[in-house]
Fold:
Amino acid sequence: MSSPESQTETRILEATLRLLESGGGEAVRMSDIAKAAGISRQAVYLHFPSRAALLIAATHHLDRKKDVEARLAPSRAAASGLERLEAYVGAWGTYIPEIYGMAKAFLALAPRDAAAAEAWTQRMEDMREGCEAAVRALARDDQLVEGLTEAEASDLLWTLLSVRNWELLRKERGWTQERYVEVVLESARLLLIRP
Amino acid sequence: MSSPESQTETRILEATLRLLESGGGEAVRMSDIAKAAGISRQAVYLHFPSRAALLIAATHHLDRKKDVEARLAPSRAAASGLERLEAYVGAWGTYIPEIYGMAKAFLALAPRDAAAAEAWTQRMEDMREGCEAAVRALARDDQLVEGLTEAEASDLLWTLLSVRNWELLRKERGWTQERYVEVVLESARLLLIRP
DNA sequence: CCAGTTGCTTGACACGGTGTCAATTGACAC
DNA sequence: GTGTCAATTGACACCGTGTCAAGCAACTGG
Structure:
């Protein structure tokens, strides 16, 4: 799980990310990854016991590469609840496109693979904690809308920010990334801030 | 596609719906359906050329059974834009749970089957037309929020009402169906109605 | 220099699920 | 009876995942 990561492992993970990034999603087979990494298909199994495990390892690799923590720092540092909300929505909204290939692979695998489903659920759970923190900050400022509990408000924000929604607006409906962030930000304000 | 539907075909379709309804989703194999319909696996292929085609036929069967048109009538008949929006959100919001099994199967199949993806996209396209109509009615009443084009407002409503969002709130976060409808309705008002 | 270990290769194979094909059977109609 | 139709059985191809065994090349240490 957390052994120092050999030369070859890194190559496999990098190849995986490369393939996922270029739209692949489901169509990234173990053999594709092996080929991209320049090794045999079987050799991949010497390092990762299953496709699900490889994908999970690849997300960790991606997180380290993208430095998730640094991105969330501004949100955590925000003075007011409103600022915190805005920073969080902005950060996550711009993070989604970078992890979309990964997300797609997980979402496609999840219905058939319990381990993948579990891993994805966990990540979404983590994301929801950010939502909760923002909502709590709003509540502390007495800025949270009436008519929603803190839990409900967190769920609503979490849903609004889901990768699927991003996919719908960006990919299906052709929104630009800028417009997506603008509208989602404004929506979050309308839904969560007391008028 | 639209031949009169034999005895056996009906039995297959009914069996399919029965299995999908009981949570199955992905785990509904051709052999399961055959067994449930009381025929051999191969016989299913005598009536439907592929799993995707069978699922598509099953949605049509479901639509007829659930009488989609009747459900949408109140929305179409609404006098004001606001009423139309409310009727539409209410109707669709209560329809989702009834088609959820079906939707799950499509969503799981779509990444690997172009025909299934196409069929699902088409259905979502139809649903979006309802959103567009509601938004147009709002605009006609001069009630549409500023800052969104009609197309954007339709997309936003369409996204808000997505099956995935329903799934997130109801299945992942444990919301009740009533609360889901209430909150989504109120959200639609907040996002789309000029204050 | 040889022995052992490590990391990879090749090739073969099992499994599960979809989809195809051929031969057969049973029922019903003319 | 003969033909036709709907279904059956059994076998098989294809794909992608995952497993296993044997071999090989390079490095390491005695």
Summary: The mean pLDDT of chain A is 94. Chain A is about 75% helix and 0% strand. Chain A touches chain B through 31 residues (CB under 8 Å).
